[in-house]
Amino acid sequence: MTGRGAHEADDTGAAGVIALRVDEISQLFDTLDPFPFRDRDLDEHAEEYIVGWARELPRHQAIKIVVHAPHSELKSEHANQLGAALSTYFSYRAEVIARDLKELFRIGRKSLLIGLAVLAACILTAQSFTMVLGSGNVSRFVDEGLVILGWVANWKPIEIFLYDWWPLARRRDLYRRLSDASFELRAAAP
Question: In terms of Cα–Cα distance, which of 37, 47, 31 is closest to 84?
Answer without folding.
Answer: 37
